[in-house]
């Protein structure tokens, strides 16, 4: 299928129902939803459906657990899910034990589970990828401000530590300011950058691990520091991309969510039909790092 | 304590070593002032076991303050209190209770969410062996207690919050009685009781006296003290001015003691020249209580509204005031039909109300006296944008003088005024609206005799100037003293209207019982 | 503030019946709209999903009845789970872990109670403070990284007895206990008394300080239990566990009609919310409509009886 | 009773004072601990950062004074911003966009007010409902995707006049207006009366329904303005804007000592919180300690005066 990399096998099993469980609260999820829809369109030719089940707008392990419980109650044959949190491993194992394979995408907790496979970006290596880019942009020295989404959110922490551990080990001359928590809020990122610049006029880079990097970029713009201070963050959402064009944002790492959604659904379908295992237990998605050059 | 099983006896064990003839409590030189405002100068008071002392005085004379000091609720600035000849000092009310002093406050304080039985046992509920509340025992004891204070009709299983004010008052009395106190202080306990309830209550007081309890009884109803008390103490301007035996004194004498001048209001023959009908009700009904009430009140007339408790007087006033929806019927003001959906509309049309229940429906407790008085007439005096704050000051001064409101400053919170003075402020509030119709619901509850006659005077004067008054009252003498006519309600129906000439205590009461 | 809290209490009186009607309406609708709704398994899922909010709401209900409010429950859930997991890991003893988790909840509750009764800090502010402090401590203890949490706790959180979720059973049992406690014991009655009129209660000899301390302690304890159940269910003690639960819990209490609740009410409120979430998953309602629907159902559930009770203000 | 009421008054008075003391203490400490703190630019930043919470708190304070509570402000911030941005995009007119945003806030407030005064829904539940509904509508209108939001709004949100942030100026002006309104106008005085004793106020001729409707409408309007400022500052109207603001706003009101607050109080409360966030960055306080410290400061700010006032209950 278009945008996907895996083809479906011929259905020899009769109708197949796949539940696709995902959240919806910001632009990141739009391509995920679209990928699930594309999978449904594509697989409908094979007598299979992919039902998109919305887990709501508040991301939590409880919502994932309730969603999987609901999908089991509705007797789906397989589940694609965005588990994100550590606490989802138990219910994933339970589903697997009941003979309903679960395919994790985007992000999963650190606790191992018996999912069929995980496709997505490893948050720590994504952090490292960004860390390498930061080091390059900063010439290995200077001050880096760090804004993380939620203290204690695994994915955010891993992205943060992936970068910071790398930098500390390899570029000891880069001084870290923070981290501070912005609760995924752009306005909070804005204020934090303002205050960071006050206390550290020589700051040259800001790394936002989760929501709201464009708020940091806007602060850079309003302070008239475009070109002097750069912001790096995640996801090709329109508000982020805008500042990539104007130069406050100097790097954005993408997770290819559309492709993840589509490929995972098809692989799960294939597994349900003829037992084709996915290529590996962990299918890494290497993020595409966009820089201002890419949008010029 | 009855919770220890001694429900039936109403007495205290005699305390060893104390001569029965010595005073139970001796207060000397009690002084108290609030923020420089001297309330008690130097009050001396002796109380003996087995004696009922009536404490009289105008509103704000300091009666409640003195009682708060004796019971530990307030600390005196100077003076000493001895119990059984021993100097005593109560830091808190709980200390006082511990020492056998029970104080039934002027303001109601039952716990509405609990049942009557639970209220009576709060603080020391009996337990079953399993550790649960022993509801059966509690009910039985509650019945006994309620009977003791003449309130046998109250079901102990009822939620206290749904009861009438009078019934709640009786519960508080029963609660105090249950502690078998050595000294029982009753601050205006009868102001919301029916005549029948008052009888039962008196019986209890006499029984407690016989059992050796010292009792202080505060009231503004002189007939009651003359009937019940052994000794009458009058407090004026923060000092004790007289002590008399009931048999050796008169109403008039007591009033002079209290006010410094003889004051009593006599009905003055008045002609009501204006035949305009100011307020007319036609077959007025509310949702559940009133049935087809038709009534006309002329401009400048003072119309009484009498009925037994539950007759529906409050409901009727509320319907006229727009606080209660009119189910059917018509109300007209000076011939123009009106249908107020909210009291604010009524006030705008010149109908002001002095509500029943000062604490719950009257005052704004955290507001100053001045703001309390001004609240109804804010819109009347406001400029285009701003409230007339300066005008409030002068108006307040004016009404303080006209109503004789006793206070230190008009910026003090109204809750620091004495009960009667609070009521006068609510009165001032209504008059500031410059209403054409004034609705009064038990307007003189807790108001002293002097102030009562002041208020009657004011009402009569305003009526003379064309104000139409509709006054609900439970006190027949009040109706006789003030009203040109009286409408009598009985169980939500209009039992009849009596003109001045037809009015007599007997006829009024007979008609009030018509539907019973 | 205590004013607005007392209004919360007052208006919650009639509520219960109308929320029950709403609960029934949603359930009946679901029974027709989804073939899976009435399956015992699904119904039990709903019960389990309601259990944590309901259990925590039991304590919160008593706090609210006594005119307090406890905003810290969400953070206490997280902190208790984390402390439990750390103790379990370090001592190797499940019992110590579980007791430690409960003790943590209790300790948080006691702190709240002392801030209120001793330092006289408005409970809204005091518990807003502990909300932050408890969450911060949970983060400090774990360095922000979730800990595994298994064994008996997992059984409580996720296990089943005769196919009935243990946490659901626990919720029922606790609700019955709390209800009996509130209605039949002296302390229970005194809680109602101080909620209604603290001053009169004190003069009647009720020790209002210790009663207030008690309700906050109980609320903390139950939040601690909630934390263990939640972490047990997820087999993971996340320092961010329970973030934002305070509003859900308070909503459950008020939906359930505090005044009557002693226990019943809280469950009804929590069930309504769990049922809604179940409906969203079963019917596949889109996220944004879920948000709208949730709000509308809450408003209607309570608005129903407002429609009949026209006419009287305050 | 009389004593207890005057204590309540005193308490509210002292509370403000003790929060002011805390504010001063933090500021003085910062002045020594950080070279940058006293720079005018930094101080103005703090002012700007406090402005949205403070402006929304002005409305919330009046709601709370009148014995209500408005939990929906966070969502109203988001919805107003989104509607403003859509109107601006579709009509091409900034004025229509801004007015549309304000009107949205106002409309939300009116809905809250009507739910309370007409349907008699407890304001906690009613505004919890609109919290959800408004957020859902914002998400539906945008499909979850932020919209660009510039022009005059951006000037209001991020612009400066003589180097002073416009939103900070707006906060000061509005606080003065609200304060004068609360203290000097008839409606303002009636708001306080209702909060004191609704029944007595109603019988005295205060139209409590329309006053209540008014305070909720005003709260909605100011939340709408807050949304425009916030979105203007970021030049982007995100449907998730303002999530969780309700607790911050209510905390600001209570920290500021509602009873007196007409306006002053709310600002003091909001400033304290903004100052804390500033302090974390200037002093580089380590991550999790930030969370702990925030809670402790809130508790101490209010607890300070509790320490002196031992001895008396209620
Ligand atoms: N806490 C207080 N602060 C200031 N003034 C007070 C306070 N308590 C009482 N007062 C004043 O003390 C005076 C005496 O009040 P008190 O309540 O003792 O009068 P009272 O004789 O009981 O009158 P009433 O018959 O009207 O109840 C009043 O002028 C009142 O305003
Ligand atoms: N909601 C209610 N629940 C229980 N009883 C009520 C309720 N409303 C009114 N009543 C009772 O109905 C009766 C009529 O009340 P209302 O106050 O009108 O009587 P009234 O003639 O004014 O007498 P009074 O004011 O002296 O009690 C009272 O006994 C009152 O207690
Ligand atoms: Mg008195
Ligand atoms: Mg009456």
TrEMBL record, chain B:
Family under the similarity heading: Belongs to the ABC transporter superfamily.
Keyword GTP-binding: no
GO molecular function, one term: ATP binding
Coiled-coil portions: none
Keywords: ATP-binding, Cell membrane, Membrane, Nucleotide-binding, Repeat, Sugar transport, Translocase, Transport
Top-rank taxon: Bacteria
UniProt xrefs under Gene3D superfamilies: P-loop containing nucleotide triphosphate hydrolases (3.40.50.300)
Record-annotated ABC transporter domain positions: 25-262, 272-516
Protein's UniProt keywords contain Transferase: no
Full protein name: Ribose transport system ATP-binding protein
SMART domains, alphabetized: AAA
Transmembrane segments: none
Protein source organism: Pseudorhizobium tarimense
UniProtKB/TrEMBL annotation, chains C, D:
Predominant subcellular localization, coarse grouping: membrane
Entry's localization field: Cell membrane
Record-linked CDD domains: TM_PBP1_transp_AraH_like (cd06579)
Membrane topology summary: Multi-pass membrane protein
InterPro entries for the chain: ABC_transp_permease
Coiled coil: none
TM spans (from-to): 49-66, 71-89, 95-117, 124-149, 161-182, 211-231
UniProt keyword annotations, A-Z: Cell membrane, Membrane, Transmembrane, Transmembrane helix
PANTHER family the UniProt entry points to: ABC TRANSPORTER PERMEASE PROTEIN YPHD-RELATED-RELATED
Protein name: Ribose transport system permease protein
Species of the source: Pseudorhizobium tarimense
